[in-house]
Specification:
Layout: H1 2-38, E1 45-48, E2 51-54, H2 62-77, H3 83-104, H4 108-147
Helix pairs in contact: 2-3, 2-4, 3-4
């Protein structure tokens, strides 16, 4: 029975150590996430999987984030018929901001914003032409019916 109690005590201490390690790692991850979100730089070296690395604080680029948001909204507007006009304008503004952000710092968010906005411009341009063509066809058909 004493072997069982010793094994149980050993397991309890291992569980406590593991729990503490997990809490420490979780705290570091939360700090890194906060730093990445706010643009702060972390000065502590962390270890993950035994390999040391220095956390890099990402510099938040407002133009890049704005470009990405406008690009996404532009893509959503492409499904709204006459919303393609708003989507086209938002896509153009997003592309300009994305280009500006890419010149400042070559980040993934800036590139994603630029690409989303560019795709939004293309889709909304094609959509706007289709909406205008459909409206013209409907008007023409209505005029033909009115003549009958």
């Amino acid at each position: 029975m004493s072997d069982f109690n010793e094994n149980l005590d050993e397991i309890k201490s291992e569980v406590k150590e593991t729990y503490q390690d997990i809490r420490e790692e979780a705290g570091e991850v939360v700090q890194e996430a906060k730093a990445a979100f706010t643009g702060e730089k972390l000065e502590t070296a962390n270890t993950v999987g035994g390999a040391g690395y220095r956390a890099q604080g990402s510099q938040s680029n407002g133009s890049a984030v704005t470009s990405l948001v406008l690009g996404i909204i532009s893509l959503v507007c492409s499904f709204l018929g006459w919303g393609a006009i708003a989507g086209l304008v938002l896509g153009i503004v997003g592309t300009v901001l994305g280009s500006k952000a890419r010149k400042q710092a070559q980040t993934g968010v800036a590139t994603a914003g630029f690409v989303c906005s560019l795709i939004g411009i293309i889709i909304n341009g094609v959509g706007l032409v289709c909406v205008i063509a459909c409206a013209g066809a409907i008007r023409s058909a209505a005029n033909e019916l009115a003549k009958m």
